[in-house]
């Protein structure tokens, strides 16, 4: 089968090559890939930036988001059968969505929402799970709470706005002038055009902030949070608690203690809880997200679909940092 893989960490695009089909373990479903979503995580893994956090062996097929059809199942698989249309964010250590087929642990897979296309479904898993784990698992958002979601027009931001609205929150978001109407249409109640205003001059007494931007934005976000609020960052810095949970060694736990010292100290002074999130695969959560999609509470925001062999151009677009929603590559059948 054809797949995009790397033989070493590199900045250059991955190579499209013939590789052997994946082995199907007892707990795996083998998925014929229809479409795969692009994420910054693919680029960070490819360049080696995350090699201490998420180490991989080579050759490595990239790709963290997939939608497709089950073509085989392992002997322990009960909930999926050949012909099922599914979507998944395969777990760390077992990525490989940029291929004609991928074997995924059944625990990471969910049935695709029936009302969306394969390309729309392929853009959802990683960003929707990130939003779920931030807003439902960590923040435990209650109706009426005030939530600031930075970069509302992006992949994570666009789904996080919809999820926070579904949970009953009052949602503020930051975006550029060009995307003000886009985020309003997603349901944002308060839109801060960062070209014209600084969010900290406008917002106050927020319960939760979801940060996906730089450290200055993270620290400025403290100004809008109320005492007892929750600051969640998906763009770092990682905390020693995260390092421990992730099973990283004492040295890395120490590095993360140092990296996050400034923000943790600032949060302590303001009596705000700081949490770093590195999202995890979860078929169970993805099944709940699929229900939200089927009920119309969350709508996939696919900006552009590229052909599989145009993946380098698709990543170049993602790297502009100016995309709305998701970029997806589709297989030609
Ligand atoms: N830790 C985790 O588990 C995890 C999971 C998912 C993603 N991430 C990370 O989170 C970050 C966001 O991911 P993503 O997939 O959402 O990225 P993305 O889709 O590429 O985000 C692009 C969006 O960011 C907006 N943006 C850029 N600068 C902005 C600013 N200063 N203020 C407000 N909006 C701004 C842009 O809107 P405008 O054009 O309007 O500026 C654009 O719509 C990435 O660094 C990614 O690696 C981490």
UniProtKB/TrEMBL annotation:
PANTHER family recorded: ALCOHOL DEHYDROGENASE RELATED (PTHR11695), RETICULON-4-INTERACTING PROTEIN 1, MITOCHONDRIAL (PTHR11695:SF294)
CDD domains tied to this protein: MDR_like_2
Segments forming domain Enoyl reductase (ER): 14-329
InterPro entries: ADH-like_N, ER, GroES-like_sf, NAD(P)-bd_dom_sf, YIM1/Zinc_Alcohol_DH_Fams
SMART domains: PKS_ER
Annotated SUPFAM superfamilies: GroES-like, NAD(P)-binding Rossmann-fold domains
GO MF terms, alphabetically ordered: oxidoreductase activity
Gene3D superfamilies recorded: Medium-chain alcohol dehydrogenases, catalytic domain, NAD(P)-binding Rossmann-like Domain
The protein's name: NADPH:quinone reductase
One protein family per Pfam: ADH_zinc_N_2
Membrane-spanning ranges: none
């Amino acid at each position: 089968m054809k797949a995009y893989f790397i033989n070493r960490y590199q900045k250059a695009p991955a190579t499209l090559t013939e590789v052997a089909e994946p082995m199907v373990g007892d707990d795996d479903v083998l998925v014929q890939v229809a479409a795969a979503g692009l994420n910054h995580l693919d680029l960070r893994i490819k360049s080696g930036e995350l090699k201490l956090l998420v180490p991989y062996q080579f050759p490595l097929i990239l790709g963290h988001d997939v939608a497709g059809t089950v073509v085989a199942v392992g002997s322990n698989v009960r909930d999926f059968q050949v012909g099922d249309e599914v979507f998944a964010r395969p777990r760390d250590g077992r990525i490989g969505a940029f291929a004609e087929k991928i074997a995924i642990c059944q625990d990471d897979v969910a049935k695709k929402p029936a009302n969306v296309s394969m390309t729309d479904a392929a853009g959802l898993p990683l960003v929707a799970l990130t939003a779920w784990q931030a807003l439902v698992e960590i923040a435990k958002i209650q109706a009426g709470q005030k939530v600031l979601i930075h970069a509302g027009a992006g992949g994570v931001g666009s789904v996080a706005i919809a999820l926070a609205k579904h949970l009953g929150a009052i949602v503020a978001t930051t975006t550029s002038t060009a995307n003000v109407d886009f985020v309003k249409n997603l349901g944002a109640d308060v839109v801060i055009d960062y070209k014209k205003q600084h969010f900290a001059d406008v917002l106050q007494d927020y319960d939760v902030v979801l940060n996906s931007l730089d450290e200055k934005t993270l620290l400025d976000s403290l100004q809008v949070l109320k005492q007892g609020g929750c600051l969640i960052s998906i763009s770092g810095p990682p905390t020693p608690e995260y390092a421990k949970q992730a099973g990283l060694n004492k040295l890395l736990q120490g590095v993360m203690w140092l990296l996050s010292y400034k923000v943790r100290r600032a949060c302590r002074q303001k009596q705000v809880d700081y949490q770093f999130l590195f999202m995890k695969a979860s078929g169970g959560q993805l099944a709940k997200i699929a229900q939200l999609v089927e009920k119309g509470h969350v709508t996939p925001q696919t900006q552009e679909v590229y052909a599989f062999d145009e993946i380098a151009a698709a990543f170049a677009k993602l790297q502009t940092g100016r995309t709305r929603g998701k970029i997806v590559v589709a297989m030609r059948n």
